[in-house]
Amino acid sequence: MKASAFSYARATSIANALELLEAHRDTAKVLSGGQSLMPAMNLRLLSPELIVDIGEIAELRGIAVKDDVLVVGALTRHVDLQRSPEIAVHAPLLTEAIAHVAHPAIRNRGTLGGSLAHCRSGFRVARLHGRSERDHRHSG
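Request: output the structure for the sequence above.
Response:
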């Protein structure tokens, strides 16, 4: 099966993406790596009128430690999580677990944000979100 017809917009910034999503409300979907969204569209489980591509928004990509907090951008690919020295030091369980997410082709294109947004059953690693025991106690 093929996806229903849809319009496409490449967001140039976070603000631009938010404007597009606000203007199209429930009829738009966000595209990052496409590993969750595109199969769902091809099976017609989802039929958005507009696809908002956020794949080129640099500020949504990357891994950093800021004030002793591990920060991972939504567009960070699974393979980048797996290879990251910051993840290995601050969330070593995630480094181990990410190797078991889907298969290499998916890990090379799929993003953390896409997997979380689509609640992919193959990405149960999301439960290992890297919080320390201290952070968990304060998160209420």
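The mean pLDDT is 84.
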